[in-house]
Amino acid sequence: MIDFKSTLGRKAKKLLNSENVIWLTTVGSDLTPQPRPVWFVPDGEDVLIYSKPKDNKIRHIQQHPRVSLHFNTDQWGGDPVLVLTGAASLDTEKRPAYEIAAYVKKYKKGMSELDVTPEQFAAAYAQPIRIQLTGMRGW
């Protein structure tokens, strides 16, 4: 569990609430790290991501549920430098993205730019992934 009251924890909470993209790193079947940018929303002390059900990250999570998350930094590798670690699971609640008000509010413009409605987006990105955060490091 992350201590969101520590100095680094407050920074993590601020980034989770303000950034639009986070890098999710899973591990492939050959044990090679596979980073990819994804849309996300904080959900309590977890992170919620939606994926196409047949994307490689789904298979990776089924085989190796330990993942990391990080944000972009500036050109000098400065602020923000934060890596979160956690346990990923395929969310069995299966609430579609269009039912998550925070998700729709955050990405409605992006969905519009993709020329899809929230319902169409949710149909394509139908697999929720829940990341239970367990650690962080950064400066």
Descriptive report:
This protein has one domain (7-138): Electron Transport, Fmn-binding Protein, Chain A (Pnp Oxidase, Chain A, Roll). Helices cover 29% and strands 34% of the residues. The protein contains four helices and seven strands, in the order αββββαββααβ. A seven-stranded antiparallel β-sheet has the order 2-1-5-6-7-4-3, sandwiched between helices. A hairpin with a 5-residue loop joins strand 1 (22-27) and strand 2 (33-38). It is globular, with a radius of gyration of 15 Å. The mean pLDDT is 93.
Summarize this, please?
The chain has four helices and seven strands, in the order αββββαββααβ. It has 139 residues and is α+β, with helices and mostly antiparallel strands.
Number of strands: 7
By DSSP (H or I, 4+ residues per run), the number of helices equals 4
CATH superfamily: Electron Transport, Fmn-binding Protein, Chain A
* SSE string, helices as H and strands as E: HEEEEHEEHHE
Ranges with pLDDT <50 over ≥5 residues? none
Q: What is the count of structural domains?
A: 1
Distance between the termini: 18 Å
Shape: globular
Helix/strand/pairing category: alpha+beta
Mean pLDDT: 93
Q: Can you give the helix content as a percent range? A: 25-40%
Oligomer: single chain
* CATH fold node name: Pnp Oxidase, Chain A
